[in-house]
Amino acid sequence: MTATRRTFLTLAATALAGGWRRGLRAQAAGPGQYALGIDSDRDGLLYLPSGYRPGTPMPLLVLLHGAGGTAQSVYYAFPMADRHGVIILAPDSRDQRSWDLVLGHYGPDADFLSTALGQTMGRCSVDRNRLLIGGHSDGASQALSFGIGTGDLFGRILAFSPGVMRPVDARGRPRIFISHGIADPVMPIDVTARTFVPRLRRLGYDVTYREYDGRHAVPPEVVDEGFRWAFEGWAPTGPR
Cα 154 from chain centroid? Predict the structure, then answer.
């Protein structure tokens, strides 16, 4: 686990320094949805919002799908990406059932994400000081756990209906948004969010918590609230 995290951060640091596949930067496309092209079976997608312009850095959100899904499951966030001006990187989990942390063999998804992140940094104009990670359900569990361990890279975490919080490390001090439906039958709130949030706050994390009257699916207005929270007071750092 430690080696995987070290490998991820080494590759990410190279990307942040602009050293990963710099030549691809000139090939950055315009707004739209693109396959990552890393794996022929389970791959992922890159979404460049309507306001994207090569040469103008935008924040980047790594967005993780739920159990049994693929990157196609994150379409719900595209209108918010357009509205708030954020690039979305949505990898597929290596195992079609779910993410490795949830399945108990943490590592392969972090390796794939490091490759996808490095490629995206080389292809797109990314504000490297505004990197986020988020997801829904099992994707939220992975994002919350992995994001705490890489909080020196991802400054903010969006966790919609997480069911597991099992970080293998704690770095940095990312701000965290957690939302959960009070009638969620899949990830019951009393044994998930209502235990995670007090624990995180005791550890000193800045947590914004939103309960809503609903089940496991996240209402669009809550997703929008999470996006608005994510960019509150987080000013662009300018061209790079």
Answer: 8
- Strand partners for 131: 60
Ordered alpha helix ranges (H), 46-202 = 78-84, 100-103, 108-123, 138-149, 193-202
Thinking of the domain 2-231, which architecture would CATH place it in?
A: 3-Layer(aba) Sandwich (3.40)
> For residue 123, which of 215, 174, 52 has the smallest C-alpha distance?
52
pLDDT at position 4 is 53
Q: Compute the C-alpha angle 33/36/38, nearest 5°.
A: 165
Beta carbons of 92 and 163 less than 8 angstroms apart: no
65-101 confidence digits (pLDDT tens): 999 989 999 998 999 999 999 999 999 998 889 888 8
User: How far apart, in whole angstroms, are the C-alpha atoms of residue 118 and residue 112?
Assistant: 10
Statement: the pTM of the whole predicted model exceeds 0.85: yes
